[in-house]
Amino acid sequence: MATTLRHRQETHGPAEAGLAPRRRLGTSWSGMHSSRVRLHFRERSFDFFLQWLAGAQTSRASEIGETLYAASRIKDADVGDWEREWDALAVRVEASAWKSLRAGHRVSAREAFLRAYTYHRAPLALMSPLERPREYRDHYEKARVCFREAAILFDPPIETVAITFEGASLPGYFLTPSRDQWRRKTLVMIGGGETFCEDLYSYIGPAGVERGYNVLLVDLPEQGITPAVGMVARPDTEAPMSAVMDFLLGRPQVDPERIAVFGISGGGYLAPRAAMFERRIGALVALSMILDGQELWTGIMGTRVLASLERLGLLRLASHFSGRFETARVLFDTYKWRTGSRSIGEMMERAKPFVVDPARIACPTLILVAEQEYEGVPVSRRWQDEALAKVGNPRKSLVVLKTEDGAGSHAGGTNLSLVAQLVFDWLDETFAAI
């Protein structure tokens, strides 16, 4: 039976502390990278990324005191400050990790390496991989070193994997609760258009392991560092996901009847698209559903304005005078890099074949959506409602993540405990029925 859990929309005055006035977000490129609750910065994308960094504390991959101190030293909308302060914090925390490791304090070293990963990775949120490819790669490699140092200090260790696909490799990590070979429920975690597979550890990894699940964190083409080796966005995500499923079914710890795929942000296209064709996926979770790639850019992100400015040669000039335009320009450089596009207009054109038909999804499906997107972005609400109505399995639900629960912004990154609770409770009940 299809289930919808919708929560009331409360009205807050603009003077209420910490809350931005509510409005439709569909005409702003920062509509996705924003929150109704402001933590520190007035520039929406800056504050959104800060909130996600703070949210990693759920998995001990950041500390609120460290993140707020770094934020206090960053001028609003200054991308140079953003890079310098997170880099300085990362260097300090990484040094403490090596010191603990040399002294034999494995747990302390592991936790510090995890935090160092988060802080080394933070500058990439607002760094152009097109303008500064070497610095972009260097920051990521520093972050990855820290994550992998942490990975080997877990018990059992987090396993670094490389999944063969079309002559290349999809990077990832395999987490399991025990060294034994019991077949377990398995969750494949797919991030969005700006994530690295290491990010997904703090999002869902420990929560899955604590509940007895194997968790595979993996980058599909366009994600992580894969565009650097020519693996850009492609509509047929069922192809790389088939390689992922082959990999999982070759492992004795994986129960082939109980494999779920969870996609967040851009993964809300990647995972559902794969589930249309890949029948070995036993359950699907999307936060939230994206049914039309071109409509995503034109209807949610408001890219027409930016595309016009870029076409007229005015985007860089606008960004020189406005931190908001500079932030948007850098973010769209990331999207162009990941889609293999030379311009925003080309990126929008390339998005045409990125389409999901929810009627072709046959597995049980849980749809999660942030309240501010469901209530404030008309196209997102239409997609979620359409998906709920059309998914071809009676076991399907739609849950709106509430602002009052601290989970109402994009992909629920500020209440990861709640996201995990909803995802794994639903999966437990779904797999118990198999």
Biggest sheet: strand arrangement: 1-9-8-7-6-4-5-3-2
Q: Helical segment tally?
A: 16
- Poorly predicted ranges: 6-30
Query: What oligomeric assembly is this protein in?
Result: single chain
Domain module tally: 3
- CATH-level-2 architecture of the largest domain: 3-Layer(aba) Sandwich
CATH topology of the largest domain: Rossmann fold
Major sheet, described briefly? 9 strands, mixed
Average pLDDT metric? 91
The H-and-E topology, N to C, reads as EHHHHHEEEHEHEHEHHHHHEHHEH
- Globally, the shape reads globular
Question: End-to-end distance, in Å?
Answer: 16 Å
Q: Classify the secondary structure makeup into a structural class.
A: alpha/beta
Could you tell me the strand content as a percent range? 5-15%
- The CATH homologous superfamily of the largest domain is termed Alpha/Beta hydrolase fold, catalytic domain
The total of beta strands comes to: 9
Helix percent band:
40-55%
Q: Which CATH top level class of the largest domain fits? A: Alpha Beta
Radius of gyration computed on alpha carbons: 20 Å
